[in-house]
Write a structure and sequence with these properties.
The chain contains two helices and four strands. The chain is of the alpha+beta class. It has one domain: Translation Initiation Factor IF3 (2-Layer Sandwich), CATH 3.30.110.70. The protein has a four-stranded mixed sheet. A hairpin with a 2-residue loop joins strand 3 and strand 4. The model has no long low-confidence stretch (mean pLDDT about 85).
């Protein structure tokens, strides 16, 4: 599966199948949330939140790809990520794009 953030895939003629998406709401462990709060006071990267967001993006992307595969897609174009805070210590990640099939 080829995944790109452009509206084309070089050298391929594309047939549009439709929009696909994947999402997840993920939260951090309360103990780590407290430690990150303390880190927020002094500045610096909140590595536990970075790890949480990376994991959430990977899961959301996997779900999007699975949806595209059920449509028989060869690739996904125009991929975009969106995130939003749902509550303190939890975030929603959504990824969406257009599933395409390669024309011969």
């Amino acid at each position: 599966m080829i995944i790109v953030n452009t509206d084309y895939i070089s050298g391929k003629n594309l047939e549009t199948l439709g929009m696909v998406k994947g999402s997840i709401i993920q939260a951090k462990h309360v103990g780590r949330d407290i430690m990150s709060g303390l880190k927020g006071l002094v500045g610096g990267e909140l590595s536990s939140y970075s790890a949480m967001m990376n994991e959430a993006r990977a899961i959301a992307t996997k779900r999007m790809v699975e949806e595209a595969q059920t449509m028989g897609a060869d690739g996904i174009v125009n991929v975009r990520y969106v995130s939003a805070a749902v509550m303190q210590g939890a975030a929603e990640i959504m990824v969406y794009g257009t599933a395409v099939k390669f024309k011969l």
